[in-house]
Amino acid sequence: RTRSIDDGDEDGKAKALGLPGVALAVAHKILTAVKGLWIRSSPWLMLVDIRKLSCPESVGDALHRFRRNTNDFGYNYTLVLLFVAVACVVTKPFSLMVIAALAMLWVWVFYVRASEFHYNGQTYSLRAQAVAMVMFSAFVLMIATNVSQVLMGGLTGGFLLCVGHSVVRAPEPPPEGDAE
Question: What is the SS3 assignment for 10?
Answer without folding.
Answer: coil
